[in-house]
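[User]
If only I could read backbone structure tokens as easily as an amino acid sequence. I have put the entry right below:
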Amino acid sequence: MWNGNTVLLIDWLLSESLCVGLALLLPSSAMPTGLAALLSLTGFVWLGVAIARACPPFGSGHLTTWDAALLCFASSFRVQSAARLGAFGP
């Protein structure tokens, strides 16, 4: 019923949602920085899981925990870029 790609994307979305939920508890001035930091930390957690599983980072034909770590780091970079461009207000 669920393939590996779907399960990994759901797990990644849940971890991203947890980061957003925790960042919403911060004051509005610290929210973008806090969210970027949380997303980076989540990326390092996914990276640790990928290293612990010792799965190959490419050539598997489906999404792996390496991809989830990359998605977290990319999300953190997007938040940092958006904050730098003023998307979150002055």
